Amino acid sequence: MRTRDHIMGLAALGFALGITPAFAFDSPRPGAGAADVLEYNPPRPPASVPRAMVAPAGIPNPGAGLLPVPRPAPPPATAAIPALVAPPPPLGRPEAPPIEATTAPAFAAPTMPITPFEAFRSGTHMLRQGDKAKALVSLEYAAEQGFIMAQWKLARMYAEGDGVAQSDLRAFDYYSRIADAHADDLPGTQQARFVANAFVALGHYYGEGIPNSDVKADIARARHMYFHAATYFGDPEAQYYYGRMLLDGTGGGKDPRRAAQWFNSAANKGQYKAQAMLGRMLFMGETGVPRQAARGLMWLALASSNAPAADHWIPDLYDAAYKQANQDERALAGEFLVQWMNGRRD
Questions:
Q1: Cis (ω within 30 of 0) for the bond into 42?
Q2: DSSP run (H or E) holding 124
Q3: pLDDT tens per residue, the chain (346 residues)?
């Protein structure tokens, strides 16, 4: 049976049941507990993010990978699930917040006073027209005036080599400007989404370092970047990556229960990797996380339906769990799925 058929079957079976979920985490907003306060005090990062960071003594070099795949936990005596081992999901780039389309007349270097927003609109318009050279002039002008969306757009262009020579160092510099100036911006605004995304990108860069540069791997600082975006901005990407570090004990203490809380928060916002990780933990059971097979199967079904084709490890996890679940667990997972799709998040 194909994954989509599994999901539809779960939902159909669920309509016949009326059982409420049995598992919930203590805190609906991870990060509020004493353990998280001790993790990072003060709760927001320092006002300055250095452009050239050298790893301090005592911080281990992460080597080839920052966040290894979650290893199977010692299975319960009644449920041995060795098949739920997946290849490590790639760290990749953070998901990009969308920029609304704008229209503006073409404009190169300004010959008269022009606002940063007008320069940004002109630059994005020329990008759509394919004139990346002129777009770069406009975007750089807006970025130098401190316009955050222009700084973010340039960071993405340099990170991906889109219309410019690829340069992680230049991307790092633009992301750092955003973090330096906007760490305390009001959460929940459109601009805050770009700030949070910059912190996640910096977390990736600090986690791996930039070859042939002064930006060295600094796992502790990477963890701080994710933590700030996760707690202050409530960013689901940051919550997922911070949860992975807690689960694996990367850069600090290992705490599966807190990891599950962060995955739960991100999963309820639609972060599909967090849905997969939470589903796997609940299906198998983990230290501090009671086994809830039906609830875990529900999250794995959601993750599998949301994951792009490249992340084949997620449908693989779902298929393995579905085969091992009994009929009652499948039916209850279908009920949970219906409740979730109807807006119930308890």
A1: yes
A2: helix 116-129
A3: 454 455 545 554 444 333 334 344 544 345 444 344 334 333 333 334 443 333 333 333 333 333 333 333 443 444 433 345 444 454 455 555 655 444 444 444 455 558 999 999 998 999 899 888 889 999 999 999 999 999 999 999 999 999 899 999 999 999 999 999 999 999 999 999 999 999 999 999 999 999 999 999 999 999 999 999 999 999 999 999 999 999 999 988 889 999 999 999 999 999 999 999 999 999 999 889 999 999 999 999 999 999 998 999 999 999 999 999 999 999 999 999 998 888 765 5
C-beta separation of 277 from 244 below 8 A: yes
Q: What ranges in 268-341 are assigned the alpha helix state H?
A: 272-284, 293-306, 313-324, 327-341
- What is the H or E stretch that residue 263 is in? helix 256-267
Tokens, residue 63 = 């080597």
SS3 state at 286: strand
Helix 219-231 vs helix 236-248: angle between axes, to the nearest 10 degrees? 140
End-to-end CA distance of the chain, in Å?
29
Write down the H helix ranges in 130-251: 132-144, 148-160, 168-182, 190-208, 219-231, 236-248
User: Which residue matches tokens 């020579």?
Assistant: 165
| β-bridge partners, 289 | 286
Sign for the pseudo-dihedral over CA of 178, 179, 180, 186: positive
The residue to which tokens 């930039």 are assigned: 210
CB atoms within 10 A of CB 104: 16
Q: How far apart (Å, rounded) are the C-alpha atoms in residues 84 and 4?
A: 19
Cβ contact 229:243 at 8 Å: no
